[in-house]
Specification:
Layout (H helix, E strand, L loop, with lengths): L2 H18 L6 H18 L2 H6 L12 H13 L15
Length: 92
């Protein structure tokens, strides 16, 4: 989802929430909210944002994708005894 699409969706949710509380945003406030959400979304889509929070193991240069994938498959091939994957309880 692009930053603009995400901002539109999140703005709609926020507007509905404010309407339930009896508040109404002006066009200017609505635009400020949309820009704030879009900027935050775009910042958080940067892979460096995820890496700084240790959400990813590495950022791979696209030119090295085959090499990294081959290394991963080679490492997996050394463990033929794979147990069943159980997720437990997933909470979202």
């Amino acid at each position: 989802m692009s930053g603009d699409s995400a901002a539109s969706t999140l703005v709609e949710i926020k507007v509905k929430q404010l309407e339930r509380e009896g508040k109404k945003l002006s066009d200017e406030e609505l635009q400020e909210l949309r820009e704030s959400i879009r900027a935050t979304y775009e910042q958080q889509m940067d892979p460096r944002y995820a890496a700084a929070r240790l959400w990813v193991d590495a950022i791979i240069d696209p030119a090295q994708t085959r090499e990294v994938l081959a290394e991963a498959l080679e490492a997996v091939a050394h463990n033929p005894d794979i147990r069943e994957f159980r997720t437990g309880v997933l909470q979202t």
